[in-house]
Amino acid sequence: VIELARRFVCAADEVWRLQRGSEADCVLFQKMVNDGRRITDRGTRQGTYVFAPGGKLLARTSSRDVDAFVEILERGLAAWRELPDADKHLPEGLELQAAQRWEMSYPEGGLVLERIARDLDEKGLAGRRGERWNRDFAWFAPSEIVLDESLQVGESVALATIARRLARFHLVDNVRGQTLPYADEELLQCELTGRVSARAESTVELELEGATRAVAQGPWLMGANPWKPGREIAHSLAARLGGRATYDLDARRFVSFELVAVGRREGRTQNNARRDASGLVAFHLQAAPAGARIAPTFIALYAVDWVLPPGVPTWVHAPAECGLDE
Amino acid sequence: VIALLAWLAALMGSASEGQGLEALPAIESADLDAWRRWIRPQGDEAAFEEIDWIADFAGGLRAADSEQKPLLFWAMNGHPLGCT
Question: Which of B27, B36, B65 sits opposite A262 (nearest CB)?
Answer without folding.
Answer: B27
